[in-house]
Amino acid sequence: MFASEYPDGLEWSIEKTTERIFGVETEIEAEGAIYEIAESVQERTVFLPDYTFESDPENAAGPSLSGIIGAAITFAIAGATGLIITKIKKRKRTEINA
User: Fold this and answer.
1) Where are the domains of the chain?
2) Which of 23, 40, 57, 92 has a Cα at 20 to 30 A from 64?
3) By the 8 A CB rule, do 14 and 26 touch?
4) Residue 78: which pLDDT band, with cuts at 50, 70 and 90?
């Protein structure tokens, strides 16, 4: 409902690259055990597949909720990384001054 019919930047660049280099539409075939493992992990951990609710794929809240959840996870990871770096720097500063 609110989604754009035009591809975003990543989709656009993949489409242009695969057409120019590989001569395929938009999909790059990935084969091998590592790709199968990654696909399996993604299928088990995905919050909202294709940005929709499995029970109600037509619900317009799916893409919005996906964005909010993704932003929250990103901020949590960035915050945790910042805290870890700060603690490491404080520990090193304390060791140097001791």
Assistant:
1) 8-45, 60-98
2) 40
3) yes
4) very high
